[in-house]
């Protein structure tokens, strides 16, 4: 296939596989609704408790179930038809959102119900994500995998850029029930992409879900230094550089603007990823993807630290109006915070493109479901550890401390790991080795 030479995003995966295109559309619309609900649940919890720690615990409470579901879902994807596995998990995700909406309409939402339904939703969604990622290399050729990963960046950009902003606006101008209900409608589009997929039984030797399957996956990771290193670097980035749990308090008392500011800050991260994906054409020509992952995470760490510095300036009253609360905002510092969050989102997207490509190109199909399960646990579990780090440190210290300190930690640790790993530095996309 002719190499894509332009600067703009490579759209050839859509033409090469209509099934991939349908799955992309369904996942994007469902993700949009999911992000709306994520912001709404955070705001709902903050309204009930007025506690940043309680907000951060929404993510933390689902960590263990999400890990178990991601690992088991990966084993299911390597043992059974991947289309069926994804569809069944999507039904559970949809069901939990329907219950959330019903509770909101009946005014029976409690802290416990928000925690429980968030746990169910995140666990089922981790199975969908792992299975869907394992499906992609079966739909398109290997040379188009970087382009497919960049299109995933467009998905993330759309759903995280528009979803939180819409969620914040809907909560501000309607209520939680309407926000959750709209998510139910959007999530139904996930079935568009999954139902129309061809049957995708696993290739090669299959192992039924269980201890042996899990041990085989672990042994593969143990002997795959490049895959293992990208996991470690991503966990570092997401643990120390994911400040979303701070946003409700930032909007309420630091920068002002309430739920609208929460939506705008969250959307800024996605805006960076979206713009980066639009100009992702050259990424498919990058050979040294290990170095690309490390350098982009270092930029991510710098941007995170600068965001923390903006919050520090806000506590000093820089550019602040006479009153800062949910209806009076520090517009100048909000704009600066959005800039640094957008840079962080762009850098994270570059890392994600190379990490996804490495996972899909270097891992054999018979092992891909389990490795994508671990990958999903890392990608979704890291931010939950980050929520615990951010919420705890902000509670015992100040709001600006965790992002400023975390960004510095990311830069130091990732630069050290890159220097120590010759294999990761020499990873060649033309000869992918796990």
TrEMBL record:
Cited SUPFAM superfamilies: MFS general substrate transporter
Entry GO CC: plasma membrane
Annotated membrane topology: Multi-pass membrane protein
Major localisation: membrane
Keywords: Cell membrane, Membrane, Transmembrane, Transmembrane helix, Transport
GO molecular function, one term: transmembrane transporter activity
InterPro entries in UniProt: MFS_dom (IPR020846), MFS_trans_sf (IPR036259), TM_effector (IPR010290)
Domain Major facilitator superfamily (MFS) profile: 19-424
Annotated TM spans: 21-46, 52-73, 85-106, 112-135, 147-171, 231-254, 260-281, 293-319, 331-350, 371-391, 397-418
Compartment(s) where it occurs, according to its Swiss-Prot or TrEMBL record: Cell inner membrane
Protein name: MFS transporter
Source species: Microbacterium mitrae
């Amino acid at each position: 296939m002719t190499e894509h030479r332009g600067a703009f995003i490579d759209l050839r995966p859509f033409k090469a596989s209509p099934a991939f295109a349908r799955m992309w559309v369904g996942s994007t619309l469902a993700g949009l609704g999911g992000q709306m609900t994520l912001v709404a649940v955070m705001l709902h919890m903050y309204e009930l408790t007025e506690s940043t720690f309680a907000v951060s615990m929404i993510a933390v409470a689902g960590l263990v179930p999400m890990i178990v579901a991601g690992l088991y879902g990966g084993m299911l994807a390597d043992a059974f038809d991947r289309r069926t596995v994804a569809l069944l998990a999507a039904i559970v995700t949809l069901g939990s959102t329907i219950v959330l909406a019903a509770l909101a309409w009946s005014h029976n939402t409690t802290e416990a119900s928000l925690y429980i339904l968030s746990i169910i939703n995140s666990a089922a969604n981790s199975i969908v994500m792992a299975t869907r990622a394992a499906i992609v290399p079966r739909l398109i050729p290997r040379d188009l995998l970087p382009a497919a990963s960049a299109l995933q960046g467009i998905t993330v950009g759309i759903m995280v850029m528009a979803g939180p902003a819409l969620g914040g606006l809907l909560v501000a101008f309607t209520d939680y029930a309407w926000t959750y209900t709209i998510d139910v409608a959007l999530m139904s589009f996930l079935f568009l992409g999954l139902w129309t997929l061809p049957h995708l039984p696993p290739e090669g030797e299959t192992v039924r879900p269980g201890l042996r399957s899990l041990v085989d996956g672990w042994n593969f990771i143990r002997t795959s230094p490049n895959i293992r290193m990208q996991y470690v670097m991503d966990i570092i980035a997401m643990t120390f550089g994911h400040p979303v749990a701070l946003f409700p308090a930032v909007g309420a008392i630091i920068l002002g603007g309430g739920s609208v500011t929460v939506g705008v800050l969250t959307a800024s991260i996605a805006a960076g990823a979206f713009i980066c994906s639009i100009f992702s054409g050259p990424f498919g020509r990058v050979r040294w993807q290990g170095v690309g992952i490390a350098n982009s995470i270092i930029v991510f760490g710098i941007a995170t630290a600068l965001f923390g510095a903006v919050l520090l300036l806000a506590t000093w009253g820089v550019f602040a109006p006479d009153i800062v609360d949910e209806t009076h905002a520090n517009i100048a510092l909000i704009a600066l915070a959005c800039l640094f969050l957008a840079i962080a989102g762009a850098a994270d997207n570059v890392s994600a493109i190379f990490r996804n490509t490495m996972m899909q190109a270097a891992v054999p199909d018979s092992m891909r479901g389990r490795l994508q399960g671990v990958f999903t646990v890392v990608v979704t579990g890291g931010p939950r550890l980050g929520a615990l780090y951010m919420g705890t440190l902000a509670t015992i210290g100040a709001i600006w401390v965790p992002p400023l300190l975390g960004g510095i930690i990311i830069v130091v640790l990732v630069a050290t790991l890159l220097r120590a790993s010759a294999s990761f530095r020499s990873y060649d996309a033309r000869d992918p080795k796990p």
